[in-house]
């Protein structure tokens, strides 16, 4: 009997336009595993994104379009997020922040039962592989300041303005 060999997960990607620039969507075994913006911090090399194939992304693209049109405030998508258990717990908390609201890193740490871990929460937040859908842009500094965002502070400010009912100039509809 030959021992089973682990298989490499199948990866596909596609690029879609958005009001915040091109978004690269990555699927692992047909399930969304990443959404990267151009010039995003912690963006892996493109050769790790797999083959170009829009097939797995129809529902993701539809829901993103509804979000950018102002018709969707939460996403309902299966995701395959690779990270440490702590990172995944932070990303789960991010999904609980309502549209148009913000939380501080300290508040998230308290929600996780780790009140002294705001810095660790910030680091995990920065490693979120599915920006916008897992709304890491909704996390702000203790003073209310916009701090750190893998997609850039300009995008963070525009996303927050959009969600709080901005005029549309902050995020023109391109979908």
From TrEMBL:
Pfam families attached to this UniProt entry: DNA_binding_1, Methyltransf_1N
PROSITE patterns linked to this entry: MGMT
Extra information: This enzyme catalyzes only one turnover and therefore is not strictly catalytic. According to one definition, an enzyme is a biocatalyst that acts repeatedly and over many reaction cycles.
UniProt entry keywords in alphabetical sequence: Cytoplasm, DNA damage, DNA repair, Methyltransferase, Transferase
GO cellular component, as recorded: cytoplasm
Name listed for the protein in its UniProt record: Methylated-DNA--protein-cysteine methyltransferase
Ranges of residues in domain Methylated-DNA-[protein]-cysteine S-methyltransferase DNA binding: 85-164
Reactions the enzyme catalyzes: a 6-O-methyl-2'-deoxyguanosine in DNA + L-cysteinyl-[protein] = S-methyl-L-cysteinyl-[protein] + a 2'-deoxyguanosine in DNA; a 4-O-methyl-thymidine in DNA + L-cysteinyl-[protein] = a thymidine in DNA + S-methyl-L-cysteinyl-[protein]
Family: Belongs to the MGMT family.
Active site: 136
Methylguanine DNA methyltransferase ribonuclease-like domain segment(s): 14-80
GO biological process: one example: DNA alkylation repair
Recorded superkingdom: Bacteria
Function: Involved in the cellular defense against the biological effects of O6-methylguanine (O6-MeG) and O4-methylthymine (O4-MeT) in DNA. Repairs the methylated nucleobase in DNA by stoichiometrically transferring the methyl group to a cysteine residue in the enzyme. This is a suicide reaction: the enzyme is irreversibly inactivated.
Annotated localization: Cytoplasm
Originating species: Streptomyces filamentosus NRRL 15998
Single Gene Ontology MF annotation: methylated-DNA-[protein]-cysteine S-methyltransferase activity
EC number, UniProt record: 2.1.1.63
């Amino acid at each position: 009997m030959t021992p089973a060999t682990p298989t490499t997960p199948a990866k596909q990607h596609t690029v879609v336009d958005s009001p915040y620039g091109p978004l690269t969507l990555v699927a692992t075994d047909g399930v969304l595993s990443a959404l990267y913006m151009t010039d995003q911090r912690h963006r892996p090399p493109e050769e790790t994104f797999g083959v170009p194939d829009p097939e797995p992304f129809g529902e993701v693209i539809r829901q993103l379009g509804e979000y950018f049109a102002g018709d969707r405030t939460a996403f309902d998508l299966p995701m395959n997020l690779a990270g440490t258990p702590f990172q995944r717990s932070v990303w789960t908390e991010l999904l609980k922040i309502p549209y148009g609201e913000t939380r501080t890193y300290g508040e998230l740490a308290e929600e996780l039962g780790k009140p002294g871990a705001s810095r660790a929460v910030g680091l995990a937040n920065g490693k979120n592989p599915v920006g916008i859908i897992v709304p890491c842009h909704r996390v702000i500094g203790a003073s209310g300041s916009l701090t750190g965002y893998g997609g850039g502070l300009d995008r963070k400010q525009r996303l927050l303005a959009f969600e709080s009912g901005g005029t549309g100039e902050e995020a023109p509809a391109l979908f």
